[in-house]
Amino acid sequence: MLISLAKLEKESVMEEQTYAVPFALVGFFLTSKPIEESIRNDVAPEELEKLQEIISKLLFTEGVQVALYPSVVPPDQAEEAVDELEDMIFGEEE
Description:
- This protein is mainly α.
- The protein has one domain.
- Helices cover 49% and strands 0% of the residues.
- The longest helix is centred in the middle third of the chain and has 15 residues.
- The chain starts with a helix and ends with a helix.
């Protein structure tokens, strides 16, 4: 009985697979303040969770979960970061 239960559980797990697929949102913010003073460093986990839910709801179909890791690319590295993102999306030119 345990063998068939284990086999049944394994088959059930194999029917539904979950994938983690990276995605990117690229944006800019405009400010006259120093960059360090423009970015909040006190974002609560609940606020980040709410943002994840909003992005999931507005950009994806029902049942898709989103995990975010907010970060800012320093201005002197922005062009390189955009080029790398472009290569990831469209493939590297040969």
